[in-house]
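Dear colleagues,

As part of the handover before I leave the project, I'm documenting each prediction I ran so the next person doesn't have to rerun anything. This entry is a single chain, and its sequence is reproduced below.
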Amino acid sequence: MRAFSREGRNLVETASAVMSLPKAPVLLLTGCLLLLCMWLLASLRGERLPARTLVEGTLLTLLASGAALLHVALHPIIFVAVLYAVLMRVRLCVDAGNLLAARGMGRQARAVYHLGLRLGATAPDRVLVLLNEGILAMKEARCDEALSLLTRAAEQRLDLGTKQQAGCLFNLGVCYEKLGRTPEALRTYAEAAQAHPVSEFGRRAQQAMNRIRAARKGEAGQ
């Protein structure tokens, strides 16, 4: 019991020592680590972390650290949650819109997408909104509107990561195919497969090309 009590006291003392660390350096380090993780994840996905995100994250981290010096400090976990929500606000709106779209609430989904655009969207964010709004329009059989949205997204797809580029081109190919524009669908599927061959979208694009070519051979053989 005495040994256990000593270990317990040691743990309490260690926790107290950690909690008594100056808040400003902890928040500064936490913010820098979050930004570093976001940059690494974006790099692994073949994306570029927008300069605006880095600037906003740095300013918010410095602001929080300065407030801590005035004894107005957030808990590091709360700070991370707030910082992430602010930096990823448009992506979170897109995710929320997609959830609404999956439940058949298309009008509400579009409203959330547009809200994201009004929250200071970066170039990749705007392309992502166009892409998801185009997919929603295609699901709702508004093919002409979907074609316009997806074409605009495809024109700016270089702002996205390679996997998202493949997804953008694949969905544009599906839209062309629905409209009966098979040659354009084939060309776009080929671009999608080339953009990221091992991704789900790259594989589906290759399957779509094989299906169309097989159907053409069947028609030619009849």
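Residues 94 and 113 are 6 Å apart (CA to CA). The chain has a mean pLDDT of 86.

All the best with the project,
I.
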